[in-house]
Specification:
Length: 178
Amino acid sequence: MTSLLNLTTTAEETSLIAEFFQQSAGRWKSERRYYTLPDGETKEVVSLITIRFLEPNSSELSHLAELHGIDGTLLSCGAEVLWDSHDSETEKPQSAGSTLFGASGTTLYRDRGFATTKPVSAEFHFSHPTTLCLRTEYKGSVFEEELKLVGRNYRTRQTIISRAGEQMMIGQYLEKRL
């Protein structure tokens, strides 16, 4: 039996994720610093990011649901994220691409992961109405992320990547709305 608390929590998370994606929509400049552990080697990357809010039943969410083998009507909302990244120091291109996110309850479905082109899912919750926390696991790695809206024009992000219980990398990001 599903408890009233679980239903309330899921409804709150559904509302918060929609608000988070809507408030994140737009163009962003992301300044990223990656720390490789344990040696502490750093790499700085700049990305231009475009985020688009996806309404329920959009063609993108239907495609995402197909990839995961779930009913598309379960996805309450989502986001499409496009990025183009280059090394801060050398200006050498790093990566460019896109990814889809779709929310159902406290699960966030993606068409690809950070380190894989295969579909993945993450569990999410909000530690504060403007702070999204994600935990994704695949290929023996754990990705813990925190994304925080800071007013209307800034976002901070932190990602910790672990393997076999040992932290391998920390990514810290400051994102400014363009």
